[in-house]
Structures are given as C-alpha cells and as structure tokens.
Amino acid sequence: MLNLKRPLCFLDLETTGINIGKDRIVEICLIKVSPDGKEEILEQRINPEMPIPPEVTALHGISDRDVQDKPTFKEFAPTLSRFVGNADLAGFNALRFDIPLLAEEFLRADVDFDVRTRRVVDVQNIFHKMEPRNLVAAYKFYCNKELENAHSALADTKATLEVLKAQLVRYENSEILNPDGVPYQPVKNNVDALASFSQQHAAADLAGHIIYDDNGKEIFNFGKHKGKTVEEIFRIEPSYYDWMMNADFPLYTKKIITSIRVRRF
Q: How many percent of the chain have pLDDT more than 70?
C-alpha cells in the first residue's frame, strides 16, 4: 500500500496532439488512491471542440465521431475539480505533458487549479533515472506483464499505478549507482520523497520555460535571456514581458510571469 498523507491522483490524458498551448484533451482517466488504500476511478471522453488529426486517431483510436456528443472540458471541469479535490498528482511524463496541458484546460475553463499547492510524482522520471525505457517497457520490466490496450487512458493509468508500486518494492533498499558512480537514494514510500526524486528540475511554469535556480529564483530556460532572472529582465526590459504575453506561450506560463511581474510592485 502507498504511504499517503492525503489522496494521490494518477492521471493520463489522450489529446489532439502534443502542443501544450494549442491542443486539447479528448480522454482523461484518473485513479484516486486514498490514504486508507481505497481507489476511485474517473474516466471521461471529452469533446475537444477541434478536429482530431487522423495520425493522432491512429495512435489512440479516438475519432471525431467518438467525442462529438461528449461534454466539453469546460462542462466537465467542475466534476473533475471536485474529484481531484486537494489530492497530490502522479502520472507517467506528467510533469512535462499531462499536468501542463491539464492546467491549460482548467485556465481556459476559468476553474482555479493551482498545481503549486500539490506534490507531483512523475513515475517516468523515476523510471528514467533507474531504468531508462517507455511505459510499455516499464510495465514489462517492473510487473513482468505485457501492456494491452496501450494508449488507452484507463490501461495506461492502471499500468502507471502498478509500475509505481513495483518501483517501491524494487528500490526499497537500492544501492544502484548513477552514471557518475554515486549511489541513488532509496525510493521511499512517501509522496514528498517521490515527488522530489521524480523531478528533473524545478519548473515554475510546468512547461519548463521558467525554472528555479539554486537560490530559488525564477530564471528563463529559453531564448536570449536563458539563465537570467525573470524579475530582473522584466525590470530592465519591460517589453520582453509584453512580447511573451502576445506570443504563443501556454496560459499557465503567462500566469506565472504575470505573478512575477506584479510581485515587483
């Protein structure tokens, strides 16, 4: 059983594509694990209000016809928000894709969903640090099973939950060395430790455009100002903030840079 202080929601999204700022959810599945071990499932197909490209349908099997009569994300958002509640979050590649895209959908639906108040466990990052592979290989490696119906939201979400449980057993007393010859810390059955261990770097805006430096300051992770503090650049070059707000950045990134800008005053 997972050692939890509050519920942990495992999630997986199927989408119209991989552009966090533009693409939409077509299917979402969550498994909420409570501290007492109880598991609840919420699964829903979503009308993305945009065409699903044929090459994407070929991947996850969901077509425009499959979602034409389904609720939009805005219609489904209140139900989803109530289900998640105050839970921490977990997923496979969740930090780089699922959670940033989900945050975008909530912002478009005008529903407050602050990820910064939650711990996030990225099972893929734990896997990649210990055994670099993808979800199908992870499921085979840790659970010794073939993943059937891969790219089905429910199958992928269940597999992610099973993989994390197997990782906790496998690495409980791990002395495996990283590429630099330094022993990895054991993977502890604790959401705080798992969230910390599964981070690649501390991103302020989910998409990784703004990250934290060693002193906890927000810095740019792209472009001509990469490595420089956001607050300082906005002070000496205010037009850079305006450019970002008018450019094709995710809404959550714009929300973060706005909070940094307002903080100056």
A: 92
